[in-house]
Amino acid sequence: MGQSTARTEKESSVEELKNRREWWFVAEKTRSKRLDYLRKGVWKKGAIGGNYAPGIKIDLTFPQLFIDKWQEHEGEAIMLQKAHALAHVLDNIPIFITDNSQIMGYIGSAPHNIVWHWQGISMVNEEIYNEEGIIPEPEEESLEILANLNDYWGGRTAVDKLARVLDPEDAVKFMSGAIGWGTPTSAATYSTKDFDYIFKGFEAILAEVEERMEETEEKLQGNPSPEILPLYDKLPRWEAMQIVLEAGIRYAERYARLARTLAEHFESDPERREELLRIAETCERVPAKPPRNLQESLQFDHFVQVLSRYETFEGAWPHRPDYIHGPYYDKDVNQDKRLSKEEALDLVGEHLIRTHEVGIFAPKWAREGLQGITGTWVWTMGGVKPDGSDACNDMTVAYMQAARLVRVSNPTFGFRWHPKVKDEVMRECFECIRHGLGYPSMRNDPVLVANTVHWYGHPVEEARTWVHQACMSPCPTTKYGCQPMRMASATANCAKMIEYALHDGYDPVVNMQMGPKTGDPREFKDFEDLFGAWVKQMEWLRNILVRTVNLGRVKDPEFFGRPFLSAIYERAVETGTDACDPSNGDRGNAWVTGFTWVENADSLAAIKKFVYDEKKYTMDEVLDALNANWVGYEEMRLDFVKNAPKWGNDDDYVDDLMVRCLREVSRHSKENRCPSNNTWPLLPENVSGNIHYANLVGALPNGRRLGDALYDGGISPGPGLDKKGPTAVLKSCGKFDHVTDGRAFLLNQRLSPTQLSGEKGYQLWKAYMKTWADLGLDHVQFNMVDDATLRAAQKDPEKYQEVIVRVAGYSAHFVDISRKTQDNIIQRTVQGLG
Amino acid sequence: MSRRDKWKSARDAMMAPLGKTKGVKTRESVPEVCCGKCEMWFENAYSSEGRGTCRVLKMGSEIHSDKPTYVLEGDAGLISYFNMDASHCSYFSKMELIDTDGTECSDPLFRRALRQMKKFNE
Amino acid sequence: MATCKDCKGFFAREDDQDRGDCVMRVTDPRQAYYKAVPVEADKDASKCSSFRKR
What we know:
The structure holds 3 protein chains of 3 kinds.
Chain A: H1 2-8, H2 14-19, H3 23-30, H4 33-41, E1 57-58, H5 61-72, H6 78-92, E2 95-98, E3 113-114, H7 122-130, H8 139-153, H9 158-165, H10 168-174, E4 180-181, E5 188-189, H11 195-198, H12 202-220, H13 231-265, H14 270-285, H15 294-311, E6 313-314, H16 321-335, H17 341-356, H18 364-369, E7 378-382, H19 394-406, E8 412-417, H20 423-434, E9 441-444, H21 445-456, H22 460-463, E10 467-468, E11 474-475, E12 491-493, H23 495-501, E13 506-507, E14 512-513, H24 527-559, H25 563-567, H26 570-575, E15 592-595, H27 598-613, H28 619-627, H29 634-642, H30 652-671, E16 682-684, H31 689-692, H32 726-733, E17 748-751, H33 758-774, E18 779-783, H34 787-795, E19 804-806, E20 811-813, H35 819-827, E21 830-831
Parallel strand pairs in A: 1-3, 5-6, 7-8, 8-9, 12-15, 15-16, 17-18, 17-21
Antiparallel strand pairs in A: 4-12, 9-18, 10-11, 13-14, 19-20
Helix pairs in contact in A: 4-17, 5-6, 6-13, 7-8, 9-24, 12-13, 13-14, 15-17, 16-19, 17-19, 19-20, 23-24, 27-30
Chain B: H1 3-15, H2 23-28, E1 41-43, E2 51-58, E3 77-81, H3 118-121
Antiparallel strand pairs in B: 1-2, 2-3
Chain C: E1 10-13, E2 16-27, E3 32-40
Antiparallel strand pairs in C: 1-2, 2-3
């Protein structure tokens, strides 16, 4: 099918392409010339499998500019030292304006460059040096620069400093790579942003900072007392905020100057000249002052995101752009008629493209775990206003329509469904899914608002402002609700819980005694002994991750420093603290991401049934088979795969175990406390960690061998193991409480594009969504691309560059993920509805 | 030896290369017989710059001298680097490099495609 | 000695004539764009491959 249709796409009409559901060709034919140019102009920044695409280079201008000023200000408070370095970068980094573009700002000195922050992690700095393909020409010269940078930063980075403070046992086990991933520093993190505050404009914030400094200086001139002593440390922090805010304004003015120069000296097309002058006017206005129209609000937003990423690797993009920009769209398009819908769609489409093109070097483990993308940039759409009324607006619809035109894999959308969402908006969501984008993921807003209140005590009005902090976890965008630093290292490789319970805490893969010694399973009397060992291993694994991350959080202001983020955080501006300092009123919104979770329930169920209930096999036989990686035990392995109960089939035998495991974790989540003394609930989801961890998790009793892909994650059943239909999957997932039993629960489902075509298809999907909502599930996302297309794309990737699939908490272009991940997606059960 | 001291030596081995001036020459040097080519060496998944653990030897082992010391019992595996000289190690066992370009990922026996290892693929 | 200010690609800043932007047209394999790099007006441009005499 693939090759013949691909050959004829040029002669086919849009209608014919729609009938053949070749949505990527439909997009190409229906988007504006501007969007087509900009979309095709983007350099692919996500890795293809584990490698960067040809032509992508690491940016060496950025770290060299940074270190120049950093060394000059050595000895100053870290936030101030960093502010000077960042300002120097923003004043001097080459900037560019791409033909046809209207939104400015890029992280790096050229469109094919990716950046990294040398101040974060030495190991990654060394990886860049060792990396094939990304070293700019002339290679010899670049290697010299890199070696000098790495020699300077070695031992001085945030993680190097943290490793010296951590308990050495925790440090070694954490960095073994077996039990979790991530970096306990805000050098690689993501932050929620309060645009109600930020859109006051940088000049207004600067005035506020100035006022605070004057008040403080006055106190310092007064009566000596212990109370005034901490104030001495606040002044350099406020000064740092001033430096970066002023540099941010100058950075925007550089674009204004370039746009004017181009309009006056280079551009002959009057229409483009007009656009360039509008760009200049926009960049002179924002971020210094509040935005007045859609272009200014989008531009302000993008500048803030770019400036944040000059400061650090923000690997996610917590955002609610329809809510933020909706009023400006309404004013420009509906009220003032300043923009036509098509012109607005061009801006919105470009907003997606400008975000998609951001590239930041990711270490190999992150590239494998997030194949095809730079970070999990899940934008939040829909939902409710603080008073509980429907927040969907014309911008919600515009983003959905633009997404179908530009078909980027990043950002993706998570849609906050609630009972008051209008049918026209639901149809837009469905169209995106039907077009095979894999997004929006559907989120149950009432459940998640209640969940946000339950776990952290956020007031309900604040909880209603939530955005996806990363792929899945809601976080309010309010003064005390915003989370400045989500520490990706609280990400657990949960399959190790059952693996360690079966190996007395020893990890045969990394040759290390990892967990506590919970005993030889051959000596266990009954299933309860095994379950008790599992609980101990679960607690140990979570404890070590949470301990490490908590320490990273409190040490971050000392080891890394966030002048820009602090300058846009109201509570940091008010208190003269680093945004990441948990003492400034942060309410806490921490969670442990649970990779490879369902393997626990399926493995426990298999042993319970075959060893303890039916006594079909002895524990000795099971352990021998696992230690042999099932080699020589194929018949037994298939018995465990086919005949042991599996999650997702509405089978109480295994479902009850899943619920029991979740309740144990939920109990322990309240015992773990974050630096703000709040809870650490579990959030099962995987990104493509199921592939990354394939060679790190040994053989398991669900029949999986070392090296086999793990399940695709969250609470999704194992690929091909959910045999009782979509309602059975939903019923299994509805057996626990999505408010109190954890933070959120990812569910992947594959649907048939043929069955869901036309109006009938929409009605079937809507009925499915009603069941989903009635059962109280918090999340579901869909792949709706047929096997034939995916197989054709495997054979002929060049012709299927814009085919997108939902991997886990994110979408990727199918051709950008490794063969193993591609096969894993094809293996997922296609559910027939109705 | 206290628990802390025992793990401290493993932590120090993990962090040891940092803070040393190495320049280009040291970083480019990869011996013909090195840990990165041994099937007993397992690359660390936390970091991807070429650190790893030996599947056989434990911390306290020393493989660089003419008379290596092998420790086979203990809680932590020997931490080493892809470009560490393994010519004196009697446990060295050359493996086939099956993931030489790095596009595919996560096979049980894989090696990340470090630039300096490229010369062995040619 | 040729300096940046003698080049057609140099545009002095209104607020400071001693500094300005070096503006260049770049066409890469995927897109075309104008690039600006801040430079000193009196910077030696004798070895600059993009120098175009004003």
